[in-house]
Amino acid sequence: MTHLMNRYLHSTRLLVAIDCIIFGFDGEEIKLLLIKRNFEPEKGKWSLMGGFVKEEEDLEAGAERILYELTGLDNIYVEHLQTYGKVNRDPVERTISVVFFALINIHAHDQESVRAHNAQWISLKNVPQLIFDHDRMVENALERLRYKAALHPIGFELLPEKFTIPQLQKLYEAIYDMRLDRRNFSRKILSTGLLIDTGEKNENSATKKAILYRLDKQKYESKFNAFWYFMPESS
Amino acid sequence: MTHLMNRYLHSTRLLVAIDCIIFGFDGEEIKLLLIKRNFEPEKGKWSLMGGFVKEEEDLEAGAERILYELTGLDNIYVEHLQTYGKVNRDPVERTISVVFFALINIHAHDQESVRAHNAQWISLKNVPQLIFDHDRMVENALERLRYKAALHPIGFELLPEKFTIPQLQKLYEAIYDMRLDRRNFSRKILSTGLLIDTGEKNENSATKKAILYRLDKQKYESKFNAFWYFMPESS
DNA sequence: CATTAAATGTGTCATTTCGACACAATAATA
DNA sequence: TATTATTGTGTCGAAATGACACATTTAATG
What we know:
Chain A is of the alpha+beta class.
């Protein structure tokens, strides 16, 4: 038992943080939920929402706790991105950061809680410099989002329950920062069989009202872990 | 400063381990380099190669150290898989495990070092039960390998510098555990423009000698982070 | 009330890609 | 020289893709 103890006893314990990249979509742009820190360290600067792992808490649970604290939402899409552990990434003390990214319906969160945390939705194109290595985390998360959305039907997580094909197209155009052909996009999306016509139409339109669809949850679950092979047209 | 100290001081420090999933290919099967532990805890059982993060060591550096210790190789393909942090995953003490996976040329490693660590190459199909949550790590790594190899020209990392198209095909057949059509495979691979005909032929053949190709490093680098869209035929 | 403008739904067509399959070339062996 | 196993390359029809046209819906306009 002494031998066992030695291996463990002589090893370093580290602070373990959890940081969350929170994506939203307002109909035009992809946005991030960032906080202007009113606490140390780096008070006054922008950062991701985060916290430390608790003694008796799984990592995923920690991410969900932190997301709930800020947005009042649970049951949202959360995925482990990766872990950042450069020796000097946190100037106060060496800290490993386990990073998750979340996709939420931007209109569904708790406004009050967001205000209390001094948080704001900021367009991807206007993201300020962030503390520590949070910039790189955001970069990597965007790559992952693009990667994932090309292959899995993940985009729906950013939209309300009922949505139109033009809305979905705008979402993909925002994710990939490129224009897509309406007609080809529609064909591709409908060919997945994931969309169910609700019979309703989008009333908030000054011109032709688009059909409101909802996800076929069943097919969604079954297709989610399979490759999807959707990709924006190459040029 | 007291405020700052409180946030940090009252948080838990955790043991941080690094575990490595090491893939190899022997020409027929995908294999894992596993160790039969001659140390506690779980002495006598099989596990991944791992270790603890050192005080002044980046995570990636730690993975490379551990890989070098076992195989004598550096400059190999290593990618962060994900981090496992369930509260009770290690019965001795709560430990977070940052997991990497590596792809190596199975004939290039240091035999002596592998023997000294009581390690063995074990076919994916015969992997014994592993300690802790290492089974799930292996499962996830295989998923990642399949995912990645379908989209990026990653398979070459498992082959010697010069290789034939039939060898490459056998590799993909092993990764996806399915048979592929020779003629379609050849067409797809050659169409990527990544292969350069060395002019040499594989002399270890009792029949028609296959052309030896090597990677076009330049194109390889440029295509690596782009989607590749190679996938085995569906059925 | 007819016209216009903007947005949506659907269709066509040529090109490319993909899967299934056939045939010729190479090299050791009998 | 025939045989056998393996490798290289070609063909063909079906499906998917990108480029593009046209008709429909709706509010606003005169």
